[in-house]
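Record type: monomer structure entry
Structure origin: computed from sequence
Chain ID: A
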Amino acid sequence: MDRRRTSRRADALDQALSRPGPEAGSSRRKAVAEQSKIENRKSKIDQRLSRSAVSAPALPSIRAVTFDVGGTLIEPWPSVGHVYAEVAARHGLKGLSAAVLNRHFAAAWRALKDFNYSRAQWAEVVRQTFRGLTDTPLSGALFEAIYSRFAQPEAWRVYDDVLPTLEAMAARGLKLGVISNWDERLRPLLRRLKLQQYFEVMVVSCEAGVAKPSPAIFSQAAKKLGVAKEVVLHVGDSPEWDLRGAQAAGLKALLLRRGANRASAGEIGSLRELCGLCVLSRPRLIRP
């Protein structure tokens, strides 16, 4: 649209530059100045288009796109620490710092080994997060309240680039799916966030019996989508779980680094970039 508008203005300026009459000199000077602005604008537009064109290669063979969930489609809101502190305050533990809880949670998450997303293992993560911050052991009631809170849509935010991208991908006839390391709370959560309707297939680790980065969970998704693995693109924010896991299974993969100033090869800075990469020439009819 920028180029069409710039082109129309350029045509008007050409007419002004060639117009005879006593005011031609003044008109020409104004037109020359305006034409210089237009040329600068054209140059900036071309530079923007060039940068977006080389950020990731086009993927014309893609027939399905799968997405990670946490950190890709949704994020805890305002943060894990804020949610923990809010719930803890209702259970008598007031004044806990959300920033400190976030740091403790990050440390507990990094220390995980073979996490299976069971309720018992989540309880251990919560205990580690609160360790040293309370005078008494963490109660089972507090854990259950935190666990339940993260099943509610109010504890999550859908990233701004998600809905426009899913709408565009569906309109182009691409099959869409989810591949996520999660527990039994995911399906109802995505339904309440109004995201589940976009996905033909959801492969969740607690149901699949295997988690990312195992190639088996990606293979399950491709089979359920009814397409060959080599025509599936997986997008996620983890280099190990999403990028390398999908590639090991034979899928194409892109690493999402949302907000990155300059994405490297194989990376995108926004899900919106997918709209320019995945093209399906024969749209699939979407029935209500």
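Annotation 1: The CA atoms of residues 53 and 276 lie 8 Å apart.
Annotation 2: Strands lie at 64-67, 74-76, 156-158, 175-180, 201-204, 232-236, 252-256, 267-268.
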